[in-house]
Amino acid sequence: MTGRGVAVVIGGYGAVGRVVATTLARGSAHEVVVAGRDLARAEALARTGPGGLIPRGLDLADPGGLDGLLADATVVVMCVEQRNEVVARACLDSGVSFVDVSASADVLAGIERLDATAKRTGAAAVLSVGLAPGLTNVLARRCVDRLPSAISVDVTILLGTVGDHGPDSVRWTVAGLMAPPDGARRPGRARVELPGFGPRAAHQFPFSDQYTLTRNLGVPVTTRLCFDSAAVTAALFRLRAVGAFRLAGRLGWARMLAGASSRLRLGGDRFAVHVSATDDGGGHVWSAVTGRRECHATGVVAAEIATGLLDRRYRPGVHHIDQIVDAGVFLTTVQRHDLTVHEHPQPSPAELPADRMPTTQEG
């Protein structure tokens, strides 16, 4: 390897990882290592992808498996949920920065506890990097920046039922449906006008944003989910309401349900992420991002953050994405990856970055 910065993408041939790896290889002068247990898949991506991809075998069950990679790495991007805290600790102990695309609150909480280690070694770890959490965090920060008097924030995610979902994201969604609704929070169902989709019924769902954003923003945050097929949304949440998913979980049917969910073909691959903020004086703003293929969106967000770490733009410590990026600038940046930003009301010139690309105004 050369003296240039090296990005190691663990799970770099998976649904999200291959987007991260190829985006980094195309967009930077840094070397990109595609690492994972299946060396043949890493080698296949290196042959067919852009130049600069280096395949490496890595078994996370091997305690010494990371040592050789960390000797050369500048940043590690974790695209699988397997021993995440252990990998993060090894990276940060070695002064290697770390990005994790995990959406699980317990995984994120474990890595948050490594903040002192990161500051001691001068490394940075960035969490909540992807679609949700990720773009949701950036949009929420953008709304609160525009409405500082906000007393509540609502996050709505519409997912396509067809697309580039990886097995981890399908399993995570099924696990969320199996979790009992939190009756202590605000009403679970809301009707939301989503750009490109119109009014949709969305249901409370345990995205990690409701915890991290409530803490980071100091404003209560409610997170909801729907699918591009209204029929699929209605059916799944009706089953959840009567406890069918919790029963399936107790019977050990999670894997079977994840497999069945991955074969749904009743919609398309478009998604929408919508965040609104409201104050007690009637003030209301919203921002949204729409696009195609959720794993593509997750991958390009992670790649942009990894690029920032390679260029040493972020301070040492463990941070969620909304704590280290300028929301307006970042939303401008992601538009180069076939994502569209929508905002209401129309931002004033003072609210726009100097190089802000045009956005689609809705509502």
From TrEMBL:
Name of the protein in question: Saccharopine dehydrogenase NADP binding domain-containing protein
Top-level division of the source organism's lineage: Bacteria
Domain (Saccharopine dehydrogenase NADP binding): residue spans on this chain: 8-104
Gene3D superfamilies attached to this UniProt entry: NAD(P)-binding Rossmann-like Domain
Record InterPro entries: NAD(P)-bd_dom_sf, Sacchrp_dh_NADP-bd
Region (Disordered): 341-363
